[in-house]
Amino acid sequence: MLLMGFDVGGTKIEATLFRLSEKNEKHAQGGSFECAHPSRGKLFGETLARLREPTERHKGYDSIIEKMARLVKETCAAAKIPTVQLNGIGFGLPGSIDPRTFKMLNGNTMVLIDRDLVGDVRRQASLPESVVLRAENDANCFALAEALCGAGLLHEKKTGLPVQEHTAVGIILGTGCGGGIVIQGRTVRGARGGGGELGHTVLYRDGHQCYCGQSGCAEQYLSGPALESLMTTRHYSQLGSSFLSAKEIFEKASAGDPAALAVLKRYKSDLGRFLGSLTSVFDPHYFVLGGGLSLQPSLYENLSETLAQNTFLPGSLIPVYQHQLGDSAGGLGAALLAL
Ligand SMILES: [Zn+2]
Q1: Distance from the CA of 213 to the center of ligand 1, in angstroms?
Q2: Per residue in 200-250, pLDDT tens?
Q3: Rounded to the nearest whole angstrom, what is the distance from the C-alpha of residue 292 to the centroid of ligand 1?
Q4: Are residues 315 and 194 in the same domain?
Q5: Do 308 and 332 fall within a single domain?
Q6: Cα 99 from Cα 86, distance rounded (Å)
Q7: How many Å lie between the centroid of ligand 1 and the Cα of residue 192?
Q8: Is the domain of 130 the same as that of 210?
Q9: 39 exposed, middle or buried (CB, 10 Å; 0-12, 13-18, 19+)?
């Protein structure tokens, strides 16, 4: 099976072509991986080609469609595969996706809202009806790929419990805070496509104003920019020091800077509280974290313990894994939708 996955964000569009097979055929090119698919069983995958373009959303919707159609052709050409041989293409988009029309209902990349992106790419790239097209929220794609091909396999190895029996929750801590829920190998989309918008569950009632219209959303406390502004407002504004990036805050903390340590203590307490609340809803077998902040090893220190202090059900600690698939999870999860 030849499947392409698009990871469409506000700044870049990435297309990756994958080959998935039931037999382990070793090919020379690309990276290889395994997946435990809920209906197809064990699959062996390899990455054949990956291309990336800037989104340039200021140029408008038509320019984005043109780029995506070109990426379909160029990614296939890079792997020397005719586009008509594609079995399917999945699009991971930055918003809630209507599960019937695949239109994006909301999100911060306004130019994509309520547009027939799937149909327009099909027309622009002249893709025949035989090529299956699907779209899904990007964080749901991340969670799906990690659950089937990444963290889920790690958890299976550690516990012996098969991937198909896991309840998994994926959280992306980056420019925003996204979430995805995978139960027994399937993404929870909900009735209208808004399932898994975990970053917009309320962490502090009457807390910081969120762009979504609510106040106190988890995203306002757990995204990279939220961490940076906590550092700026809490500790450095009085001292006249300049802005620090999230990465610099972690570096300062590991060097023993008391202000950075205090800010991270607060951040990790919020994260533990957030995961604890989600545990009371889903009681997952594990959490998996993605996004820029998830790369910081110190984030995971005592996180399961903090989580346990903030949830209803006592008992064994719930593991919080770092993502296993790196940057490719979004594209792979999108591709898996079209399977
Ligand atoms: Zn919100």
Answers
A1: 6
A2: 999 999 999 998 899 999 999 999 999 999 998 876 555 556 789 999 999
A3: 20
A4: yes
A5: no
A6: 22
A7: 17
A8: no
A9: exposed
Total domains in the fold of the chain: 2
Domain check: are 234 and 115 in the same one?
A: no
Give the domain range for residue 36: 2-140+328-337
For residue 172, the CA-to-ligand 1 centroid distance in Å is 15
Q: Look over the chain and give the mean of its residue pLDDT values, rounded to a whole number.
A: 93
Q: Answer yes or no: is 150 within a domain.
A: no
Whether 221 and 129 map to the same domain: the answer is: no
pLDDT at 26: 64
Question: Whose structure tokens read 């997952």?
Answer: 284
**Residue 265 and residue 299 in contact, taking contact as beta carbons nearer than 8 Å:** no
Residue 218: closest CA among 260, 187, 280, 173: 173
How far is it, in rounded angstroms, from Cα 166 to Cα 144? Answer: 12
What is this structure's pTM?
0.95
Name the residue with tokens 């779209």.
Answer: 135
CA distance 17 to 51: 9
Nearest CA to 252 out of 243, 240, 241, 261 is that of 261
